[in-house]
Amino acid sequence: MSEIYKDFAPLDSSKTPRFAEVATFMRTRSIPIDQAGVVDVGIVGVPFDLGTNFRPGSRFGPAGIREASRIIRSVNGHTYVAPFEIARIADLGDTPVHTVLFDESIQIITEYFRAVRENSIRPLSLGGDHTISLPILRGLVQSDPVGMIQFDAHTDTHDSARGSKINHGTPFRRAVEEGLLDPKRVVQIGLRSTISAQNEYDWARSVGMTLITMDDYESMGRTAVIEEARRIVGNGRTYLSFDIDGLDAVYCPGTGVPEPGGFSMRDALVMLRGLRGINFIGGDICEVSPYLDAAGITSMHAANLSFELLCLLAEASRDYAA
Amino acid sequence: MSEIYKDFAPLDSSKTPRFAEVATFMRTRSIPIDQAGVVDVGIVGVPFDLGTNFRPGSRFGPAGIREASRIIRSVNGHTYVAPFEIARIADLGDTPVHTVLFDESIQIITEYFRAVRENSIRPLSLGGDHTISLPILRGLVQSDPVGMIQFDAHTDTHDSARGSKINHGTPFRRAVEEGLLDPKRVVQIGLRSTISAQNEYDWARSVGMTLITMDDYESMGRTAVIEEARRIVGNGRTYLSFDIDGLDAVYCPGTGVPEPGGFSMRDALVMLRGLRGINFIGGDICEVSPYLDAAGITSMHAANLSFELLCLLAEASRDYAA
Amino acid sequence: MSEIYKDFAPLDSSKTPRFAEVATFMRTRSIPIDQAGVVDVGIVGVPFDLGTNFRPGSRFGPAGIREASRIIRSVNGHTYVAPFEIARIADLGDTPVHTVLFDESIQIITEYFRAVRENSIRPLSLGGDHTISLPILRGLVQSDPVGMIQFDAHTDTHDSARGSKINHGTPFRRAVEEGLLDPKRVVQIGLRSTISAQNEYDWARSVGMTLITMDDYESMGRTAVIEEARRIVGNGRTYLSFDIDGLDAVYCPGTGVPEPGGFSMRDALVMLRGLRGINFIGGDICEVSPYLDAAGITSMHAANLSFELLCLLAEASRDYAA
Amino acid sequence: MSEIYKDFAPLDSSKTPRFAEVATFMRTRSIPIDQAGVVDVGIVGVPFDLGTNFRPGSRFGPAGIREASRIIRSVNGHTYVAPFEIARIADLGDTPVHTVLFDESIQIITEYFRAVRENSIRPLSLGGDHTISLPILRGLVQSDPVGMIQFDAHTDTHDSARGSKINHGTPFRRAVEEGLLDPKRVVQIGLRSTISAQNEYDWARSVGMTLITMDDYESMGRTAVIEEARRIVGNGRTYLSFDIDGLDAVYCPGTGVPEPGGFSMRDALVMLRGLRGINFIGGDICEVSPYLDAAGITSMHAANLSFELLCLLAEASRDYAA
Amino acid sequence: MSEIYKDFAPLDSSKTPRFAEVATFMRTRSIPIDQAGVVDVGIVGVPFDLGTNFRPGSRFGPAGIREASRIIRSVNGHTYVAPFEIARIADLGDTPVHTVLFDESIQIITEYFRAVRENSIRPLSLGGDHTISLPILRGLVQSDPVGMIQFDAHTDTHDSARGSKINHGTPFRRAVEEGLLDPKRVVQIGLRSTISAQNEYDWARSVGMTLITMDDYESMGRTAVIEEARRIVGNGRTYLSFDIDGLDAVYCPGTGVPEPGGFSMRDALVMLRGLRGINFIGGDICEVSPYLDAAGITSMHAANLSFELLCLLAEASRDYAA
Amino acid sequence: MSEIYKDFAPLDSSKTPRFAEVATFMRTRSIPIDQAGVVDVGIVGVPFDLGTNFRPGSRFGPAGIREASRIIRSVNGHTYVAPFEIARIADLGDTPVHTVLFDESIQIITEYFRAVRENSIRPLSLGGDHTISLPILRGLVQSDPVGMIQFDAHTDTHDSARGSKINHGTPFRRAVEEGLLDPKRVVQIGLRSTISAQNEYDWARSVGMTLITMDDYESMGRTAVIEEARRIVGNGRTYLSFDIDGLDAVYCPGTGVPEPGGFSMRDALVMLRGLRGINFIGGDICEVSPYLDAAGITSMHAANLSFELLCLLAEASRDYAA
Predict the structure, then answer these.
(1) Which residue of chain D has the CA closest to B104?
(2) Which run of H or E residues covers position B213?
(3) CA distance F219 to chain D (A)
(4) Closest among B265, B262, B278, B196 to B229, alpha carbons compared
(5) Smallest Cα distance from D280 to chain C, Å
(6) Mapping DSSP to helix (H, G, I), strand (E, B) and coil, where does residue B207 land?
(7) pLDDT digits (tens, 9 = 90+) for A125-146
(8) F162 in contact with E at a CB cutoff of 8 Å?
(9) pTM to 2 decimals?
(10) Which C-chain residues 84-143 have CB contacts (< 8 A) with chain B?
(11) How many other β-carbons are positioned within 10 Å of the β-carbon of residue E50?
């Protein structure tokens, strides 16, 4: 391992068993944001779930995913990417949040991600409900809108919920309106579920987002979906948002609204591995609620998906200027 | 929404959050059978599990499925069918049952479904164990036998279990013998599992039922299976029975006998959506046992399947005379 | 049963098994608030948990307690009080709440309880986190402050949490400040747990509340505690608030912050039965979080406690003017 | 160990770890009833739950208790009774039952216990729901009625449930009517719970049974309760029936109707140890439903209680003629 | 059924319900090894998990699988093989193990399987962690190395773990080194997961093992994988080792290290059925940890897979000399 | 707070919500042993469970207790001790252990605690199974034997288990033999459970240990038990070992062998608070197995007990020379 990376390696499981020591993400080094100038990719928990419309609890998502990440080994078994050998990776801990005050939480999360941007760190954020993508993007995107690949059962582009403009059903509508996302460079994969109105998907399509429902996914085939996603985001700066409910419900009982009929973990892993080379500026895994889970499988899946994002972000940090 | 349907809409989640209020099915209007003359499609719980040979508990199936249905939205996200806009749909509550007396229960369930028929209601029944399909058919079928599409791991056409002629392994043998089902118009999809004898499937085939095992399913492909099912039942009056154990076991740990190697929820949803236009006179979802479940996924899947049946029954009520 | 009460009896389990039909509280009659003028005691769900500082989920408390109340029989086995024979009791459903907007929720809950008061109904509220006691009291108390008997591990009289003046740690400080509670007529029973500061209990004592810690409880003995509580609230109008975490943690794993070393369900039942004759204007059971529970015991205990409150409120409605 | 007992010892855990080998009760020798002539005390499973009015599943009670009994060591740590050194003890397996046919099950269970009696075996029966005590007593009691010590939250002396004369709410009414029990020599300990009518306990008292409610239990004190129970049954032939729901609900979440406010396992253990010297002809542990349990504690408690009964029965077999 | 097999049939579920009696594997006859001379195929539990590097508990695997096997019926529903009609099958109980002493356990397990070999029994072993395959092979393989088909997420061919040469990550490296396995006749199917080093698979390939990763599996297709496995092991003596974590994680939450992205139970069942005719000398199902499971699905899947192995071993015992 | 302690305070929950950030014990400062010279009291995880005779998994005890400690506040609500204001407290992380090699683990744990002693730190150890008390004492006790107060259902003074001299049933026999413990100054509180032989307690008594069974506990009363324990250990150096199974089983389903009939958490808390002023040199909480737990209550109880030990150790560090 290169000298500059050796201080950032996870604990060596041949010396410290995987069940031992406090679980930062993959038991990698813990560095707070104010000392993280040298970090290339930072894991950040965002324990916020006040935007949840149904079953809450994703405020415990970061803790659950970190605990489940004990068993993640340091090399990708299919792409052979070894993220800790190509980037300085640290667990930055959690963003500040307020337990009760919604607007204040959104504000301090936003400020945190401004600091992340100012430190040129590519964040891998562990949610939290999907609301968090909005303050993350507000913090990360300074000028030009970015593209996004979103894995999700729902578009999360509602306008509002009974007067609430910011909640876990609306982040990407707001992000487009605020110029954070370029809708032409946004693709949503895995859409399905019962819907509230026959025009549910109209707004997203009207602004130019590409929506790939599970019917589309099946008819196109996984390989074509990957190619389409790559084509849409192209070479520009791109964000990746993975709502765990994009997975078929059996893979994520521990989420607020599990939806049947989605793609499998095999599908998810292959799709993520198919996105190498994109200029990802950050990513998130959202909506993991450990107290709703069965035998920890949702957190375990989220930890594995997080590792795939880590590989993508590590490669992006190596290949692109921050 | 048309005037005649507006009294039958579920609670509006933008006004009443989905976690609020008592859960009738999809939080739709509750109307007892004796006031249900105007109803087109009625949800009916049948909390009966005395016919169970292994793990009991499906008497709690109706309660479990209704609770899980809180999150089901009112429009089908793939077919765009909006059942509450084309039919008057109500939750009729549960049939009477006796907690201990088997024969009396069968009798009073039968009588209940006679009233359902006399009110020209297409029932969506929530079991209960699979025994219930027999009294349902006894109540619903007055003269000519009907066809049936059955999703199931088991044929449920045993002759008897140690002297018991009516139990959850025998309903469809009885139904054929009693002239309730036309075996030539019966198709069973998803058969598999270890079996008790090498001639397990012989009787069903001998009377003309079509059996599609999982090996058949895989070799035919899902599209051909849908076509075959449509061909077999044709345009006649048809019943739909969905034993939750038709699903692969990971989708239904909360059933008496989960069986590995079955079709997925994606498969189930696509098959059900492929059955539009058939003259369904009623349907049931059976064998959901909430106390055996993991994180509520079986009830959640059953609620989603129930919604698909609701769409089929609503369309049938619009398209066919009762 | 007296004629005037017969329309308000729960379903008869000898006719409709306890596992059948939708579960209103004890499967009693459902009447919305705008038709509830004749009701003496009303069960009200308050599915609000946005004031929670640690583990959320009590928004599902009303649903959980109602489901668990299926098995509650209609007569108190120790006092022989039969509430449905002395009061018109109905399940009024849930208060409106907003899923995300905190202040709006507090406002509409308050308004709901104004209507409860205007209908001269004594409410038995099912929480929801303990924040709800504040809007309940705001709605119920029009002029003179009331007394209160509170069962709780925590005083819930904090001043604020990082700028938040209303949350589940502060309701009774606000209620005293707003003149809703007469602190001299407030007794808190069951206090214990680790605390945030050595002066944790000072404010409550400084305004005249009586605090009975578990050490006090043990040294006084249960009978003396009951007498002390009766003495403190006297004959005046009194509210009863039962935070489920007042119970020892083994009785309530399904709450946000279970605390060891509390009183048992036996203690709670005997204490509640010892409070007969007090002029209770309403009561609540808070902080039940079904998704955190083990085998449903917390909801089951809450349902039993709710029945004891129902007996107290039914007697109060008979014995005191509304 | 005496020569005559050495063939009946449980597996030696110093040689075969407690997690190894199939779990008969305490991993003791398995002998079917038709070869059990030499056995003094026989463990018998009665996997019957068709008499259940609410939550079924106690048909899995015998399997659950046996599995939990792996860890029970062979000597009583408080009385130092070593049952396997004073009696020939074997696990006789399960009685026959029918999965669906109620009356036939009652019949064949009765016949089984006739054989038990004819073999002069004192049975320790593992239920099954409380219905089973009736066919057990029918089989065991040939001529004179016997006494009974019953631990239970409910009297189980209802007359009938909607036409059903035999179910888990009625066994002891039937047993008195049939001359199997002498009600003057029956004591019920632990009664509580909400009740269906104010006269719930009248019949039992009218025929001379002694009912000790939890209020009585507390006011008398445990020692006096033991003395009272001993006084009531005296020196005559006595049966012991332990409904697991006699325990406070936290000790038995895995039962059909857990009831709060009961006695603890410490209480139960001390009471059972206080009954040494009584001429017990058999006993049962009922209403354990493993699928309703949390972390196996109900089965574990039932296994420990079963061991205490085993000690009592072993001593009785030594001290009294069969 | 042939006369010679009739003493070895499982309990008849039409006479003894599946929930009744102690659960040997499929409730078949229990015969200890020292009386098992006549047995063709023997089920053997190996409750050993001291070789586990992460989450322990597979010492309870044999008990869990046996309990789950109650529902397995005696005929294969797809191949129609009826193992109990072509082989004398018995449950031999568990091997001895030591609870704490590692080396002694390995030694006594090895000796046990020597006795299995000397009795010409083909063992179906229920683990236990994957370490057990080493002492099994040491006992079974006397002279020439055998082939092996292994289903697994991991190769289990590590050299050592911090000085430990025998643990659940190393059995097949040791087996090759000791001449128990012919690596040219070894195929591993299902490999995936994050890995510890980029050369993770090198040793296995260097000695001639065939490794089929999930990427390979998908690109080859299931049918080709079956053919390749058959080709590799050919007609020689072959062992089958099925690590339950070969399955996709949703099928086996109850294992030490569930890995996402694996094959389904449908895949597993079809692959096993595709291996008929091979000269299997024994097989194992490893790494089932019931206390980590959700709703028993892992044990249930393991029981079904065990039945498929039983069919293969029964046919092998019929078709090949021992 | 005094200047010297301010660097060692837990995270302030008014700024960082309790669900946020990685959970060291009480979210206090993490300092590895080689930088811990200034620490007075150190929390140490000992993730070792290879000495377990029945259900393993306590290797995850440290992780489980730390996660549960998020909610522990910094002041004792009954004694008002504020440990972080009187001692420098840090979470030292976990001791090294080997995942498979027993003897090596014992050796490296011993060495770790030698370093603890050499740094004059009073350790609060989180197990791990009860074996760990032996290497802890070997490390901590250099010359004169120490006294011990042990809370436990079992004496853990067996001689050996089938040749194994060190396992979780033997640590205190070894400790006495090795001169680490002065048996005259050892008291064991809470003994009960079935036992393996009638002489189970003889050895411990023969060497002078004081054994307080639950029968003794009840007859003496809790206050007298506290006084007796204080009398026995006197003013000398004393160790405190709390096996979580000392608690009644309902408080600790998540342990290897829960035993009914023990003391309550209330009892435990009061007893621990009654031990102030003793010269405790260290203490441990053992046998917490999170994967066996129900709703996390065992870990939660262990976290609360750990806080009480922390108070005792902090006071001892203030009052006694190290």
Answers:
(1) D163
(2) strand B210-213
(3) 12
(4) B278
(5) 31
(6) coil
(7) 999 999 999 999 999 999 899 9
(8) yes
(9) 0.98
(10) 91, 93-94, 96-99
(11) 27
